[in-house]
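Audit log entry. Action: structure prediction of a protein-small molecule complex. Ligand: zinc ion. The ligand was supplied as SMILES and no pocket hint was given, so placement is left entirely to the predictor. Protonation state taken as written. Sequence taken verbatim from the request; no trimming, no tag removal. Recorded inputs:
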Amino acid sequence: MIIDHPVWQKVLPYLKPPSKGRQNFDFSFPADVRAEALAVRVECVACRKMMAPFRARKQGSTRSRVVGTATEGHIFYSGACPGDRDKGCSRTGAAKQHKKELLEVLGFKDCTVSKRGKLAAVTAERDALRLELEDALQSLRIAGEIYEEEHTR
Ligand SMILES: [Zn+2]
């Protein structure tokens, strides 16, 4: 497991937390840590061949969507062989299990909770609005009754 590798403690501070269901292990390294990470070789979790788990994220251009920001420093981690070498490895159950375990180790197990949490917040807001609306309707009904009473005398 990568977390037992001596490089792990060095790269960890540069890990960007996965967000919005995007469960990738992305890093933004300073040059020295980047070189060290890229030199790491571990066994693929699926086929056990030695491979580089830290890889530069290939992008169409070296510019990110933020204008003028080079993305060359961005590295991602994968426990399985890169796609161009062996397409199968990253799609195996072993690779998925590894990813899941790593997310758990990192405390990102509940990534999807944010979505659920958001839903709960929206539901609570909707319920609060509904109560407010009922209150308003009730006030309106009472006002209407008072008006009726005053004008039917
Ligand atoms: Zn492999």
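Audit: result stored. The radius of gyration is 27 Å. Strands lie at 15-16, 25-28, 42-43, 50-51, 54-56, 74-77.
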